[in-house]
Amino acid sequence: MSETASTPDGVSESAARAAREIRVVFSRMRRRMRETYDPGDLTPSQMSLLSRLDKDGEASVSDLAAAERVRHQSVAAHVGTLVERGLVSRRQDADDGRRQLVFVTDSGHEFLEDRRRAGESWLTRALEDECTEEERRALLEAVALLERIVRS
C-alpha cells in the first residue's frame, strides 16, 4: 500500500492541488460568464448583494452585511445605489417598525434573469461544442461531488 503525500498542515497533496485548481477554474469561469453580459455598471459587490437578496429573500442591511462579511456602511451604500437603479426597494419590517427590509423589485428580478440566461447560454453552447456526451456526464458527476462538499 502506498503512502499519500501530505502538506505541512496534514492534508493530502491531492486535496491541496484539487482545492487550488477548483478555485482557479471557478474564478476563470465566473469571469468568462460575466463577459457574456453587461452588468449595467454594477460593481461585483452590488451584484453579489442583488443575487443574495434574490436567492435568500428580503433582509435588513445588517443581515446582508453579516452574510456578505462586509461593513454595514458598505452594504448601506450599495443598497442605496441598487434602490436608485430600481433593482431593490425597502419596506418597514412588520415585526419591528424600527428596521427596514430590502427586497428585489420586479425590475431587479428581470435584470438578474437576463444576466443568468446570457451566462447559461454561453456555457450551454461551450459544453455542446467542446465536450463529448461522456465528458458532459463526467462534469455532472463532478458537480454532484462539489455540491456535496459545499453542503458539508
List segments where confidence is low: pLDDT < 50 over at least 5 consecutive residues. Answer: none
Tell me the quaternary state: single chain
The number of strands is 2
Instruction: Classify the helix fraction into a percent range.
Output: 55-70%
Let me know the average pLDDT.
Answer: 92
Q: How do the strands of the widest beta sheet line up side by side?
A: 1-2
Shape: globular
Largest beta sheet, briefly? 2 strands, antiparallel
What's the end-to-end separation, in Å? 29 Å
Q: Which sequence of SSEs, written as H and E, runs from N to C?
A: HHHHEEHH
How many DSSP H or I helices? 6
Q: Which structural class should the secondary elements be placed in?
A: mainly alpha
Q: How big a fraction of the residues is strand? A: 5-15%
Describe the structure.
- 66% of the residues lie in helices and 7% in strands.
- The chain is built from six helices and two strands.
- The chain has a two-stranded antiparallel ribbon with strand order 1-2.
- The longest helix has 25 residues, at 106-130.
Quick description:
With 152 residues, this protein is mostly helical. 66% of the residues lie in helices and 7% in strands. The longest helix is centred in the C-terminal third of the chain and has 25 residues, at 106-130.
Attribute tags:
mainly alpha, 152 residues, two-stranded antiparallel sheet
Layout of SSEs?
Elements: H1 13-34, H2 44-56, H3 61-68, H4 72-84, E1 88-92, E2 100-104, H5 106-130, H6 133-151
Antiparallel strand pairs: 1-2
Helix pairs in contact: 2-4, 3-4
